Amino acid sequence: MSDAQPRGSRGPGVPTGARIVLVLVLIALGTTVSWLRYDARHPAPEPRTEFTATNPPAGLPAALTTGQHLRWSRCTSPPTAREGYECAVMKAPLDYRKPDGRTIDVALIRLKATGPNSRRIGSLVLNFGGPGVSGVNGLPARIRQFGHLLDRYDLVSFDPRGVGATMPVRCGKTADDTAFEGDDACAKHSGAILPYIGTSRTARDLDLMRYLLGDQRMHYFGVSYGTALGAAYAHLYPAHVGRLVLEASVDPTVDLDEEQVAQAKAVQAAFDRFAVHCAARIRDCPTGDGPEEAARRMARLADRLEKKPAPAGGGRTYDADDLAYAVSDHLTRGTDGWPPLAKALTALIDHNDGRALAKGSDRTGSADRSASPQDSSRAALIAITCADSSLRNGLERLDRESKRVEAASPVFGAAWSSGVYLCYDWPFDGERVTPQVNAEGADPILVVGGVGDPVTPYGGSQHMARALGDGVGVLLTAEEEGHGTYPQNRCVVKAVDRYLHTGRTPAPGTVCRGDMS
């Protein structure tokens, strides 16, 4: 086509303009063919099919069920959720006894499934514990633990009632203050909503959520307190139970006082195992030659900190209770927390330096009770706990229970003993002494318990599996240290993932070997 070409190279009888048009057409056809070939090798992403449920929660107005659609949009907070995550608000009744009355906004977050429609099962709703823990913040923070499930599930979490952006409880000096200033402040600033806080009410929100997410059945993964919520849901809606995983279960058969005793014993046992390991494997072990010496050294350290708290960095100091909670936080991490705990205790004992101990304390698990007064999760924790429990002992009985908790653990008993007073002055009645969890008629529910759990003792998982009912609760035991075993233990991951993908539970009595084996 170039003017430099010989004239004889041009075809006879074809005008130059026509030749140009012809070449352009051929180029276009060739491009089209090449794109068709490319598409055959790299098909366009399959359009997402949204699921639709046909079983709305009974007794709710159409405006909240068939007339409500979740409007997902880019999350504005937390900052970690601004890429890839979607947020929405669900309208739910404030009072389920008056479903046509006032509504509340429930904050939701979602990360869409990445697998093809043919493999997608639905939504997996996650609760990370507490009570008082935000799921909207929690999903981005824990996505590494659950991200491999995105092939089959949308991952969804939410802020339960009283938490985060869902009808938050305020117990500060003013209505906007997130500090906890006591029960009277809660009644003053949140009295209108406190009667509608609690696990059974949040469980009813879950069923509305299930329907609006488009699922005929609820698929759910709850950790620690999240097991109480999942079991409450199963009790209320056994016919809607899909695949429910309850890991590191609370004990549904004990009241608040017995729970404090059991937890003090469990964390003490975990510390004793650390002390044995430390004496045998760590040079210059700060806790000495075994559990008895460890208890004596910790008692001396606690006395010292009670008289003069140690600097912990950032203007913080550590007293005796802070010591107990921080050590517990390290123990929740299982054997991974043992070497840094030994180093941190050495720094504190030898150099009065609490920075390393503070750095390793993430205020999760048992340390929820020591949440900072400026942390609104403490107000939510107390509000939900006292809404669930109707136990209201007098001071004489509380003092006896406090001494019993203290006697249960030489290292942690004093700090844990204050938990028995949690609901003493709470201005509203609680629901029950122990929760109802029997879910007769539900599909099998997988309960995962770690033998060395320092926060939710293994016996609680055993009791939960039995209390759910014959043929419903299936217990998977993990011989692991730490609070929670998924995804740390490969055997647990294999069994849990198979259940979530197929609905098949492990055989009764299955035990996964781990660091305690």
TrEMBL record:
Keyword list, A-Z: Hydrolase, Membrane, Signal, Transmembrane, Transmembrane helix
Listed Gene3D superfamilies: alpha/beta hydrolase
Pfam families tied to this protein: Abhydrolase_4 (PF08386)
Biased composition (Polar residues): 367-376
All residue ranges annotated as the Peptidase S33 tripeptidyl aminopeptidase-like C-terminal domain in the record: 409-512
GO function terms (MF aspect): hydrolase activity
Domain of life: Bacteria
Residue ranges, compositional bias (Basic and acidic residues): 356-366
SUPFAM superfamilies with a match to the protein in the record: alpha/beta-Hydrolases
TM ranges: 20-38
Region feature Disordered, mapped onto this chain: 356-376
PANTHER family linked to this entry: 2-SUCCINYL-6-HYDROXY-2,4-CYCLOHEXADIENE-1-CARBOXYLATE SYNTHASE (PTHR43248), TRIPEPTIDYL AMINOPEPTIDASE (PTHR43248:SF29)
Family indicated by similarity: Belongs to the peptidase S33 family.
Protein name: Alpha/beta hydrolase
Organism the protein comes from: Streptomyces drozdowiczii
